[in-house]
Design a protein that fits this description.
Strand content: under 5%
Helix content: over 70%
Largest sheet: 2 strands, antiparallel
Distance between the termini: 13 Å
Strand order of the largest sheet: 1-4
Order of helices and strands: EHHHHHHEEHEHHHHHHHH
Structural class: mainly alpha
Shape: globular
Length: 469
């Protein structure tokens, strides 16, 4: 491994990296928040079928994610870059696949044909196109800089990019995709889903373009010969690494908690609070809570440590979720206020979580003397996707469990009350799990991260014959 002499790390790198995640999330967050609504309310496919499709298709990612990680670990372009080229190659395919998901022209097809179509297109988007751009993008943070503070800054900017995309989607989407029927009830408008996917897809392309041109890979690892059994050996080593294994479990839990809330919030405000306009305000308040933490995330992590700060922030978030379960409010303002506190707590962990993954990659390098950035991030990405699939499946299945009628404009009172229960109880369980994992399992304290940074400098100096800066 060697650090190449290129322009100094700075604002262009931070903004470019932030825009890369914004590009990802303009398609992914729209999918996570509104795909289930589109499938059930517009296409008329049952929640049980969609939940099963979400789960089964993600097993394909076990192969595509691992393959993508291995490709970027063993291949470079003519300039020695491993990660940036894939952002250029996959930007257009991922946006096109996203638009095809919201194809309203299949609405009149037979049910079996609709299910076949949504399954194939969902696979193309998630298992091929999104994998092809997200894994190189995510792993790229480890080669933009070797400085721990700068990596934390990258993590914060990445989270801010995602939050801005989520904020725009959260504010605009409810006002666009929901319209009133003749009786004054909120209904999902199919053509507007397609229009929104095209608009957000165009914005995503611009974000990818700027990410590609503003990012610089400063750390280059020479291509290594791939021998039989190398992949399985790397996978076993990664799985046995406590830091990597724990951050994967933590990410799964936090993703499940927020994912279920994201998926079911649409139904919560549509059928329980019966006010989709408040959904826009709630999304704004939630994202605002996270944004308030952004200016302080790097300073807090430098002074106290990423693990140490996350323990406190996740404790606050868990308490807010538990409060919502206990009080069982029918007032959307109270619900919104509690979610503001929850996302204020989630904010710090979200801002530093990507830096924690980079810390785990560095820790692996120190322990094994091997850079396996792509393989590690691929495994992380796959397991996180599985969590997302399970989360989406739980959300979709829960609608069937409680007797939700996707063709009915108005749900029964029992079903509406059950929507609140599953929307809050499931996140509570996962939030408590996240808090316990970060407090008692994750090993990379501030002291350990600083030790690894010094060890990496020594390893780089040794590999470069004592000439590393």
């Amino acid at each position: 491994m060697k650090q190449t002499e290129k322009r100094k790390f700075g604002w262009r790198d931070k903004l470019g990296y932030a825009l890369g995640d914004a590009g990802n999330d303009f398609t992914l967050m729209l999918l996570q928040s509104y795909l289930l609504v589109f499938y059930t309310k517009v296409l008329g496919v049952s929640g049980a079928v969609i939940g099963t499709m979400f789960l089964v298709t993600k097993f394909v990612d076990a192969f595509t994610d691992t393959a993508m990680g291995r490709i970027i670990d063993t291949h470079t372009d003519k300039n020695g870059d491993r990660f940036r080229p894939w952002i250029r190659r996959m930007a257009i395919p991922v946006v096109l696949a996203s638009v095809l998901i919201y194809n309203i022209f299949i609405e009149g097809w037979p049910m079996w044909a609709k299910i076949a179509y949504v399954t194939v297109v969902y696979l193309i988007y998630g298992s091929v196109c999104y994998t092809g751009i997200n894994i190189p993008y995510g792993a790229m943070a480890a080669v933009l800089t070797s400085d721990p503070k700068e990596k934390t800054s990258l993590s914060t900017f990445r989270s801010v990019g995602a939050l801005l995309a989520g904020l725009l989607i959260g504010m605009v989407a409810p006002m666009v995709v929901f319209t009133k029927d003749a009786s004054g009830n909120d209904v999902a408008n199919g053509p507007r889903f397609l229009l929104l996917s095209i608009i957000f897809g165009g914005i995503a392309l611009l974000c990818y373009y700027l990410c590609y041109h503003w990012s610089v890979e400063r750390i280059h690892v020479p291509n290594k010969k791939v021998e039989k059994g190398d992949l399985w050996k790397s996978v076993k080593q990664v799985c046995s690494d406590r830091a990597i294994f724990s951050i994967i479990l933590i990410s799964i839990c936090i993703f499940a908690a927020s994912g279920v809330m994201q998926t079911l919030n649409q139904y919560l405000f549509l059928d329980y609070f019966k006010d989709t306009k408040m959904l826009t305000m709630t999304n704004l308040v939630m994202m605002g809570g996270m944004m308030l933490v952004a200016p302080f995330a790097t300073k807090i992590s430098v002074r106290f440590g990423k693990k140490e700060g996350s323990i406190v922030s996740l404790g606050i978030a868990s308490a807010a979720y538990i409060l919502l379960l206990v009080i069982r409010t029918t007032n959307p303002i109270i619900f919104m206020s509690a979610m503001f506190v929850a996302y204020l707590g989630l904010g710090f962990f979200t801002m530093v979580s990507w830096a924690m993954i980079s810390d785990c990659i560095d820790n692996y390098y120190v322990e094994y003397g091997e850079r396996a950035d792509g393989t590690i991030y691929a495994m992380y990405s796959f397991l996180k996707k599985m969590a997302g699939a399970v989360t989406g499946s739980i959300g979709a299945w829960s609608l069937s469990w409680i007797g939700y009628d996707s063709l009915a404009t108005v749900q029964t009172e029992a079903v509406s009350n059950a929507i609140y229960t599953v929307s809050v109880l499931i996140p509570v369980i996962f939030m408590i799990g996240t808090f316990l994992l970060i407090a008692f399992m994750y090993p990379l304290t501030r002291k350990k991260v600083e030790e690894n940074a010094r060890a990496m400098k020594a390893l780089e100096a040794k590999e470069n014959g004592g000439n590393s800066k």
